[in-house]
Design goal:
The protein is mostly helical. It has eight helices and no strands. It has helices spanning about 5-20, 35-45, 45-60, 65-80, 80-95, 100-110, 115-130, 135-150. The N and C termini lie far apart (about 65 Å). Mean pLDDT is about 85; it is low at about 5-25.
Length: about 150
């Protein structure tokens, strides 16, 4: 193998490792059937069912940021914002780089008219997402839409 080809192969290997290290560990399958059913309930917009199932899964897996993030999401859709904030914050305690929790927490702050706190999470995502990521793009659009409506 030529030196140039070896350098390219080494660079590709290095980049693939770096990108996987940056990946958000969100959406891990915990193997818990209630976690899986809780995610299915969210997809079906069965918010109460999701809260019940994910709460049960959270009792068994107290260190799973994904469960906490999805609990926050389900509570947000039931209108229980205080509970939603609790679970999003717990997700970020467990994993400060959890992109989904930053996005959803930022969106929740927009729902309660707290643009400055939403912008904190947008800035966090900008730092976390070294390459384009959907969570940053989604929250950026939500903040822009919030500002547009507020300017009317």
């Amino acid at each position: 193998m030529s030196g140039r080809l070896l350098r390219r192969a080494a660079l590709a290997l290095l980049l693939s490792g770096a990108l996987s290290a940056l990946a958000d560990p969100g959406d891990e399958d915990s193997g818990d059937p209630e976690y899986v059913r809780g995610r299915q309930a969210i997809e079906a917009k069965d918010w109460q069912g999701a809260v019940r199932l994910l709460s049960s899964a959270a009792l068994r897996d107290t260190r799973n940021a994904d469960i906490q993030n999805y609990l926050g999401y389900a509570y947000r859709h039931t209108g229980q914002m205080d509970r939603a904030f609790e679970h999003y914050e717990r997700a970020l305690q467990l994993n400060p780089r959890h992109r989904g929790a930053h996005e959803y927490l930022g969106e929740a702050y927009l729902l309660v008219n707290d643009l400055p706190k939403a912008e904190v999470h947008l800035a966090a995502l900008e730092k976390i997402c070294l390459i384009p990521c959907e969570e940053y793009d989604d929250l950026k659009k939500a903040v822009a839409e919030y500002r547009r409506k507020a300017a009317r």
